[in-house]
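Input record (one chain):
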Amino acid sequence: MPNSASQKNCQTDNINSSSMRDAPLPIMKAGLECHQQLDVDKLFCRCPIEEPERHVYKFTRKLRLTASELEKIDPAALEAFKRDYLYEYSAYDNCSCLIEADEEPIAELNKEALDTILLVSIMCNSKIFDELFVMRKIVLDGSNTSGFQRTMLISSGGEIQLPNKKVGVQTIVLEEDACTPLEKLPDKVGYSLHRLGVPLIELATEPVLTSPKEIKDCAMKIGEIFRRTCKSKRGLGSIRQDVNVSIEGGARVELKGVQDIELMEECVIQEVKRQENLLLIKDELKKRNISEKDLTADFIDVTKEFSQTNCNLIKKALERKAGVLALKLKGFSGLLGKEIQKGRRFGTELADYLKMKNKINGLFHSDELPNYGLTDQEKSKILSLLKCEKDDGFVLVCEEKQKAEQAMETIVERCKVALLKIPGETRNVNENASSSYLRPLPGAGRMYPETDHQSVPVDSAYIKELSKKIPLTVEEREKLYAKYGLNQKLIDKMKLDNYAIFFEKMLAKGYDPTFTAILLLEILTTVEREGVDVSKFSETKIETILSCQKKGRITKDVVDDVIKTWMYEPKHSIEEVLTELNIKKTDSSELEKVVKSVVEKNLAFIKEKGSYAESTLMGQIMKELKGKASGTEVNAVLRKEISKIL
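The corresponding structure, as predicted from the sequence alone:
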C-alpha cells in the first residue's frame, strides 16, 4: 500500500498552512543527547572492536517483557514486545564471544573506558558519584540479545561552554552500544553482534538550546570534548546525536540517531514545522467542532466493492485473501493530505503508526484519491457507503481481517490524540531530514540493577590524580604545535586526531615534530589504504621508528616499507626488519659515488635548469639509496657536485 509521503497531488483545504522553510520558527527549546563510541576494547568483555570477518554461527531469540524494579512496564518496551518479532543474531570469531550472546556472565568493567568517561566528566565540571552502579535498561527491540542494555550513571551537572552561553549538563553515562541491524523481514529481524558491547559515552544537556544553529554548535562542542581524549572512535555511526525538541503548545519529541551533523539544523527545522502544523490541524478540528466521541472504529468491509478494481496494490492484497476495510474519519477531509513536513503529510503519520504498531505497510486515504489505479467513482462509492459529509475523510486498509481491525483502532487512537495535543514520541530521522514515528518515549521505570557486576567505588584521590591528565584544549594545541614549527595544515589535522596526546609525548622526547606528524597523519594513512590494518601497529613500534629516524638509520622514504614489513612480521625486532629490507646507513664514499653517478647522467639537464635541477635529482638519488642516507646528507653532497658544473 502507498505511503502518502510520496504524493504530490493530495487535495488539501487551505487552513493557513505556514511555509515549510521560509516562515520564522516559533519559540522552541531543545536538549541534546550525544553518544560517542570509544576506541578501546568492549565494555564488559575483552573482545576487540573490529569489523566482522569470519562468520561463526547464528542463533535466534524471542525477548520477553519484564517490569522494572519499581514494578512498572515501560511503554516503549511494551510496544516492541507486541510486535512479536523473532530476532536472529550473527556472531563472529574475531569480535564477539559468549558474553554478547548472553550465554556467559559479564567480565569486569573496561578500566580504560571508565577512565575516559571520568576525564570527560572532569572536563565538563560534572559531579562524579563516589559509587557507580551497573544497571539494566529494558530494551525489547532486539538490539540486545538479553532484552536490556547495561548502563552506568557516572556524573551529573556541569556545563558546556558555547561562544555566547553556558549549556548545562544533565547526566554523563557509560553504556554498551547495541547490535547492528542487518535485515528486517515481516516477522524476523536480523542483527550482527560485532557492535554489541562497544563502550559508549552518553552526554545529555539541559533543554536550554533555542535555535537550530545553537543545537548544532553545541553538538560540535561536545564532539570536540570527546575527541580531545584521543579515545573516540571515528567514522560514520561512531558518534550519534539524539535531539529532544519542543515548541510552545507542543511536546517533547526525540529525534533519534542524527549521524550527519550537517543535517542537524534541517532536522530541527523540520520537527519544529511538523509540530507547528500539527497544532494547525488541532485548531482546524476544533473549528469543525470535532470531539473524541465523533471518532470511533466503526469500520465497514468494502472488499466486494473492489472486486473489479484496476488498483494493483488492492489486486495483490485480494489474491492473498486479504480484505479491504474502510473507516470514516469525521472532520478530517483536507487534513489527511496536509503537508506537515518536507514530503510528508498527516496521512503519512497514520501510515507510520500502522507500520510500527501493526506491521502493516501503509494505507490509502481520501485526500490522495483518485490515484494508484483507484478511480473517482470508487472514491465516491466509499464516501457514500460511509455516509461521509463535506468535511469527512476516510482511510482504506488492505490486510488480513484481524490485523486490519487492529489497524483501525490504531488510526482512531492517533486521530483522537490529534484533537488534543502533539504526542511525545521517539522518531527516526530520514535522509531528507524529515522524521518517522519509531516508538513511544520511554518511561522512567525501565531500570533494574545488574546482578552480575559489583558496584564500582570512585576514590577522590584517584579523581585528583586523573585531573592532572586533562587533555589540552584545541587552542592550547594550536599554539603548542605552531611553536614547534608545524605548518597550518598539519596543525589542523593533528589537533583533534587520536594521536594528538601521543604526538605531544613525542615532542617532549625531542623527536622531529614535522616528521612525527607526517608519520602519524599521512604515512600510516597511506599504508592503511594499501590494506594494512595499522590500528594494530603499537605506539611503542612507532616510537622505535622515530628513534631510528632521529639517529639517521632510516629516512622518510622507507618508513612505509618498514611499517608494512613489521606488520607482516610483528614478532621481529627493528633490526630484523631493517635487515630484511636491506636498509643500512651508507658511508660518505658510497653516498658521493651514487650522487656523482646521477649527476653525470644528467649533465645536460643541470646546465639547462641550473640550481632548479636540484629537486628532480634529489628524488632520483633518494630512490636509488632506498633510505640509506637522510635528505639533509644527500642535499649537501648534491649541491657541492652541482656547483662544480655551474
